């Protein structure tokens, strides 16, 4: 049984390879040769990197691996990520029972049936955005004019946040999600967003609406600061993830014309196609982090209590033992066992909403833009390698 004293194999995050859609080659090699590897982090600390699908499921479903980021040894992948931990905590960085108590307050808001009832409104938003994007024009930036405003409008509607403030909260989000943001920049952005949401939450007490923030206020169980922290989590995650998945999915389809043609011929397969795109792209490239609270044996390695663990789900989602030919985009694949939303009690609360938005976005784009193509060479596309949520900064398209 190997122990926690091994020499770091490389530094996480590792350098990207030639394919911008693929995980760093070092992770693939680690998955094949040493699936639980010791790695260095940005500050010189070390952590365990877990790369195989089955091992990551084991970690994410085991209470001996804690999500509590205040525990000694918890791994942070940047100075900014560590600074984020200094603010009002959210349930994603808590363990049960407190995690379950807070998460249950939101579970009903994202149940499949309730989210499904939003389909007509999300479709209306998608159509309105495409109407404006295409009126009298033959090219546009898909990120700025469709992929980003669609989930932003939806999450604002659900939370009760004024969409006219989107430039402000998107600016704060970019700072919070940059791997190279300084601790000072994160502190400032976090404080600005927290003040905004606390003020907005206070206003809901006297002027309630139908949004989630107002319903949390009406429960009377949380402080204004706690509600503001929940709002921050949902607001940032609710637009950043879907926006980047939408643009990256369109780009991946354009780079795989056979798969794009298949989806155009069989639009009824869009839900399954979304699952394969989630697997293939897996936009959380920095990994899901935990810390061991007692000694655990994993894949022949003994992880000691107090040692950090980073689960790289983008690498696991290409694990050939789970997904044969995993480096290929195959829209006919059954990809439902992917880990793009995590696994276990902490898996993404908003995944029904993300799936709905992605299905509507892709279906609407492909149906209404039959001549869709890139407006610039692929080599000119700027990928968001510096961000915690992967994607593209712009996606110039023509039709």
Proportion in helices: 40-55%
Radius of gyration: 21 Å
Strand fraction equals 5-15%
Low-confidence runs = none
pLDDT averaged over residues: 95
Distance between the termini: 58 Å
* Beta strands, count: 10
Number of domains: 1
According to CATH, the fold-level topology is: Cytochrome p450
CATH homologous superfamily title: Cytochrome P450
Tally of helical segments = 16
Order of helices and strands: HEEHEHHHHEHHHHHHHHEEEEHHEE
Main sheet summary: 5 strands, mixed
**What structural class do the secondary elements suggest?**
alpha+beta
**What sort of overall outline do the alpha carbons produce when their principal axes are compared?**
globular
Blueprint of the fold:
Blueprint: H1 25-33, E1 36-40, E2 46-50, H2 53-60, E3 65-66, H3 79-84, H4 98-107, H5 112-116, H6 119-134, E4 139-141, H7 142-147, H8 149-159, H9 166-177, H10 183-206, H11 212-219, H12 224-255, H13 257-265, H14 270-281, E5 288-292, E6 296-298, E7 301-303, E8 308-311, H15 313-316, H16 351-368, E9 373-374, E10 396-398
Parallel strand pairs: 2-8
Antiparallel strand pairs: 1-2, 3-5, 4-10, 5-8, 6-7, 9-10
Helix pairs in contact: 6-8, 6-16, 8-12, 9-10, 10-12, 11-12, 12-14, 12-16, 14-16
């Amino acid at each position: 049984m190997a122990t926690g004293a091994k020499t770091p194999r490389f530094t996480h995050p590792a350098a990207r390879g030639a394919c911008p859609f693929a995980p760093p080659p070092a992770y693939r090699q680690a998955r094949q040769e040493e699936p639980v590897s010791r790695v260095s982090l940005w500050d010189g600390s070390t952590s365990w990197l877990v790369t195989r699908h089955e091992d990551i499921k084991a970690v994410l479903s085991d209470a001996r691996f804690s999500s509590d980021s205040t525990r000694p040894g918890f791994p942070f992948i940047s100075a900014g990520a560590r600074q984020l931990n200094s603010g009002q905590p959210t349930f994603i960085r808590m363990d049960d029972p407190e995690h379950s108590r807070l998460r249950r307050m939101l579970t009903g808001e994202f149940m499949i049936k309730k989210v499904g009832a939003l389909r007509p409104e999300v479709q209306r938003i998608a159509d309105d955005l495409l109407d404006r994007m295409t009126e009298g024009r033959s090219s546009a930036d898909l990120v700025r004019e469709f992929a980003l405003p669609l989930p932003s409008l939806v999450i604002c509607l659900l939370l009760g946040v004024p969409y006219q403030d989107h430039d402000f909260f998107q600016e704060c989000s970019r700072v919070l999600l940059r791997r190279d943001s300084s601790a000072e920049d994160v502190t400032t952005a976090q404080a600005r967003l927290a003040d905004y949401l606390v003020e907005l939450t206070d206003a809901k007490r006297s002027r309630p609406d139908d949004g989630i923030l107002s319903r949390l206020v009406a429960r009377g169980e949380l402080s204004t600061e706690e509600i503001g922290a929940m709002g921050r989590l949902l607001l940032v995650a609710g637009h950043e993830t879907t926006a980047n998945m939408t643009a990256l999915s369109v780009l991946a389809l354009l780079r795989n014309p056979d798969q794009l043609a298949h989806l155009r011929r069989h639009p009824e397969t869009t839900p399954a196609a979304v699952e394969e795109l989630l697997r293939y792209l897996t936009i959380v490239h920095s990994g899901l982090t935990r810390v061991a609270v007692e000694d655990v044996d994993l894949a022949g390695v003994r992880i000691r209590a107090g040692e950090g663990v980073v689960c790289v789900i983008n690498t696991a989602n290409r694990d050939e033992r789970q997904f044969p030919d995993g480096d290929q985009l195959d829209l006919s694949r059954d990809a439902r066992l992917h880990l793009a939303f995590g696994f276990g009690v902490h898996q993404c609360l908003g995944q029904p909403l993300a799936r709905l938005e992605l299905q509507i976005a892709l279906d609407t784009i492909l149906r209404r833009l039959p001549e869709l193509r890139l407006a610039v060479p692929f080599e000119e596309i700027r990928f968001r390698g510096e961000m915690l949520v992967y994607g593209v900064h712009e996606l110039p398209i023509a039709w």
